[in-house]
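Notes from the 1:1 (GR / supervisor)

We went over the backlog. Supervisor wanted to see one worked example end to end before approving the batch request, so GR pasted a single chain during the call. The sequence is below; no edits were made to it. Supervisor asked that the structure be written out right there so they could see what the output format looks like.
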Amino acid sequence: MQYPNVTTEVEDSGRGLTKKTRVVLADDHPITLAGLRMLIEADEHLELVGEATSGPQALDAILASKPDVAILDISLPQMNGIALARHLARECPSVGVVALTSHEDRSYLEQALEAGVRGYVLKKSTAACLLLAVRGVHVGGLYIDPAVAGDRFKPSRRTKPRATGAPQLTGRETEVLKSVARGLTNKEIAGKLDLSPKSVETYRARGATKLGLKTRSDIVRYASLRGWLAEV
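Structure output shown during the call:
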């Protein structure tokens, strides 16, 4: 199926004209893909610009259409969703990736976050959860399915973020770590907070060191325990 490379403008109350969120879908199950297509096409704020049933097809569709968000099944054949997300993080960092999966195991979530995924939604969840993830990721946020981000989203044995009794962070350190947890890059955080990328890295390093956090996944876990992700 061919999709025109066209972006339609719609009226956004109180903010003038804004563009629709352009979406690419990738799932190797025809019935699931058809359901996702109907969901996207039924939303007036979304525009479907491509779809695929394998990792390589999804990559081609994304490179051709340059969508705002790509919804990827983690278990895509030939190149799984996590491997594809890693590739997109290098080649198309502006594309927000939402992982759609049946896996509730935290190891999959951690792999996805490390790969640059900004949305993680379980296939058993409601359509509203997926739409919320797409909208959140499009504006630079991070969305984790409540079924995974709740009690199951706890510190690993390797690193134990200290959510209570933690060292006092400065305001800037807190702002930067919150932004990191929401999936923003250092460049995006610099623009948001009117800082240089070097300053962002400094605040990030200082805050992470104070809290004993080593990776982005650790920061996201800490943010979840502190309730920061609920603010997205």
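Supervisor's comment: The chain has two domains: 9-149, 171-231.
Batch request approved.
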